[in-house]
Amino acid sequence: MAKKKRRRRFTGTLEKHRRGFGFVTCDELEQDIFIAANCINGAMNGDMVEVDLIPEALWKESPEGIITGVISRNITEVVGTFEKSKKFGFVIPESKKYREDIFVRKKDFAGAQRGDKVVVQITRYPDKHDSAEGRITEIISRGGQPGGDIKAIARSYDMRDSFPSKVNAEAKAMRKRGIRQQDLTGRRDLRHKKIFTIDGADSKDFDDAVSIERLDNGNYLLGVHIADVAHYVREDGPLDKEALKRATSVYLLDQVIPMLPKDLSNDICSLNPHEDRLTLSIDMEITDKGVVIGHEIYESLINSCERLVYDDISDLLENHDEVMVEKYAHIKEDLFTMNELALLLRRNRSDRGSLDFDLDEAYITLNKQGIPVSIETTERRSANKLIEEFMLLANETVAEHFYWMEMPFVYRVHEKPEQEKLRQLKTFLMSFGISLKGSSETIHPKAVSKVLEQVAGKPNENVVNSVTLRSMQKAFYSTECRGHFGLALKYYCHFTSPIRRYPDLMIHRIIKAAIKEEMSAKGLKHFRKKASEAADISSVAERKAIEAEREVEKLKKAEYMTYHIGEVYDGIISGVTGHGIYVQLENTVEGMIRLEDLRDDYYDFIPEKYTLMGRRNHKTYKLGDEATILVESVDLERREINFLLEDHRED
Hints:
- The structure is a single chain.
- This protein has 651 residues and is an alpha+beta fold.
- It is 29% helix and 28% strand.
- The protein has a five-stranded mixed β-barrel with strand order 1-2-3-5-4. Strands 6-7-8-10-9 form a five-stranded mixed barrel. A five-stranded mixed sheet has the order 11-18-17-14-13, covered by helices on one side.
- The protein is globular and about 75 Å long.
- The mean pLDDT is 91.
């Protein structure tokens, strides 16, 4: 019988790497097809392409192929930096996935000058021999303009800080309308209660406020009061359509790409102090064991008595700061009672195995010119943790409530780690002498939590936390309640931030319909469709926002280190690859020591041990080791920072 011939031609989507090569993802193949840079043949990132496999004998590790045609193009415009000569110009793409420059004829400059951040519309796509051509359609910022680099990154992800005129008009109308008498019908008036917000010093939009009481039976009555954004954002109106399209606010250091216009986010919806505001409240009765034994969800009217700041309240709770004690004497007892409850909830969460990745996060300060002048690590203090616990509990309680009501809903889902990722994590932990119990089917969050407890306070804590976090699956939104592995919860949702997250706004609409008993068979069908749409769009938008935020952070960290070339720092080895060693400094900046710069020996990479070992001297470099480095160079275009080991540099 003749041997069945392997199929050679496939179609799929190209994802390009900044170094020029790429991978084509095909539904028919389990593995992606590797495409060498010289086999791309004019295809661009995201294009649907036709690819021919090369003979299997020539593969290195995975299937390899040559792109033979572009079926459909993914992009029509590119964001980048404009460079020009007298007769022509070109745009250097901001995104490193679009590696090739775009040629621009003089007649298509549209007033752009050298160094400007621009949008170029593609008029001719690249082929084997010629680069793409385009015409400039928008000047994002002039060369050297403060914040222009961040604006360009945002625009490269199709994020805009301005809103269409129809959206602005509706938002302005809602702000002017304010609170009317008919808006109070059916609402519980809580303006007599001591309710306040606790947020960061730089926060402009306040969508959650809290209150607490001690009941006669000794239990706590915790109130979480959330801005009633759904009251102002009419379903399927211009505001709502734009909010769904954005799905989330994006925070790019000193710039914000908001989900809603400021007339709503910073004004009529924001729980500003000493102003009446419409809210959606949940009251939870909690025992001294930290167990919720009853709850009520209802529409309300509040007037926040204070706008509190995390650091101030943390000083009060942790140090009994005299200035803060005097300033907030009227709510001091409430704050200490809240902290008492938060510690109880946190202990319970730890006991059930909830994962607490206490990772160092960077706080990057930019000056007025947009230049990074300092990078420090942020600290989660008592007040931050207090609000975190209350929001987690509110989200869990709301999710469970609507799960048992069997209503359409948007849940926050975090699944168990994948089998291969879990295997790799176990191998990694073994190199530290740490055992992780459980298979991909049986693993419990408690097992992972114990690992994090073992390294808490040790030099390798951040490395272990980082690698463990990367082993977890990404959380997403779904209409199915499939649990949250990281929080060790069966029921979870996002309910507490409707100003900046669309799933929360969607949930508020469902809650309000349920409260008013407006959920007919037709309504159920309607909300099932809307909830599914919101979950899908929001999951994609969230991933895009995270990517943009990381790109801005990488850019500003690289820019910061350009001012520190030649300086020596202590760090921890945070990554080991066949190309070299990654070292993370105390301020979270990470750079690479190239393998060829380890000049005292030839080093082999041992993947299963995340280690480099010298052939002659048997010296090892492994994850978690301390390292003293010298900052050698920075490639701003690639956002890459290059280190040398201090004892390997050439004087």
